[in-house]
Amino acid sequence: MEGSFDPDCRRCMPWDDIESGRYKERINMVSQLIHLRINEPLLKSRNFHFPDDFSDNPRVIQFRKMGWVDTYVEVIINCSEEDIEVPKDGQILFERHCIDTTLLQNGILIRKIEGRS
After folding, report:
1. 111/74 Cα distance (integer angstroms)
2. Is the pTM here over 0.90, yes or no?
């Protein structure tokens, strides 16, 4: 929903736009992420780790939800204005704007890594 400072922060739900399909892609993406959160136990973990794999690009967000032994879910979000290369690793749970090992601008990659520390 859009909005700004008070009183614009209380806009009505754009039902006509939703029913016309204007937000279909966004709604589908959020539904997939909700489903993933419900069904992947590691995403409920309170344990985070912030590796420094993309320290040369401060507009790339990377964190890991740690599980047991050497299993984790890694989230990489590319907020930069350039594409980045990511190592090919693990099982992809969710991707947006990702082609093979290239995470495009505004791309998201969520993957489960097992058997490494």
Report:
1. 5
2. no
How many Å separate Cα 11 from the centre of its chain? 27
Which residues make Cβ contacts (< 8 Å) with residue 93, sequence separation at least 6?
36, 40, 73, 110, 111, 112
Whether the CB-CB separation of 103 and 83 falls below 8 Å is answered with yes
Alpha helices in the chain (DSSP H): 15-20, 24-39
pLDDT, one tens digit per residue, over 18-65 is 999 999 999 999 999 999 999 999 998 889 999 989 999 999 999 999
Question: What would the pLDDT profile of 57-75 be if each residue is shown by its tens digit?
Answer: 999 999 999 987 789 999 9
**Domain ranges in the chain with CATH number 2.60.40.1180:** 42-117
Of 76, 79, 72, the C-alpha closest to 87 is: 76
Class of domain 42-117: mainly beta
